[in-house]
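Render this sequence as a predicted structure.
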Amino acid sequence: MRPPSEGGDMRKFTSTLRHPARIVHAHCDLPCGVYDPAQARIEAESVAKIQEKYQDAANQKKPSESEEDFKARCLVIKEERADMVKHHLWVLWTDYFKPEHLEAHANLHDLFWKATKLAGEAKHSSDPKVGQQLLGRQRLGRQGPAGLREMISATLTIGLVALSGKTIIGYAIARYAADSGEILNLAVAPEHRREGVAAHLIDALLEGLRSREVREVYLEVRESNGPARALYKDKGFTVAGMRRAYYRYPTEDALVLRLQLDGGA
């Protein structure tokens, strides 16, 4: 785990993530100049949700249809959505990226190859875990390079990365002012979840905030995100409020959590 760093010190982190310097969008095969990676992410969310419904067919089906018919519909739609994930990714790969992107981001080919392979696996699988792996790869760094750069380069910001060898497997970003702090972003690569990475990131982030005389910390979490809520509860966070329709893709309320820090330096 790297120690907390502020502001521009986190630039190495963003370069390691290998995101292009521009926000790009995937749209169609025509040279229309509109590229939006959000479309691939939305299709990945659809795949994951359909896999969940497939496993719960008895409760999800309409009264007028059989469980077998419902499952058949799920499979057809899931395969279409998985193909769309691959389509949007490959439009980016074939139409947007140029040789200079490959020179600047050496693992770009590997990143897209793995993402499209996961989409292929999700197409042929009804296991929700496969869909979550695909969705996790779409979500890691979903703020986009501009959003991450804005958070990291701001003053009074703490940034952390978790490493496995030389590979970034997670990151956490917080900001603070006076005696109040806010956790802005926390992400862990899907293949390294349930290994305690998120818990270590939170502990180190809270220690960094505490050392800066922060007395209370806030964050938002999806109301449906049971594992994250359990983790934050274990760290001492309590519900302080709710923000209606705070999240998108899908739209969902956010719970505002608060933690009182003791022993601020």
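Summary. The radius of gyration is 20 Å. The chain has two domains: 7-15+142-260, 20-139.
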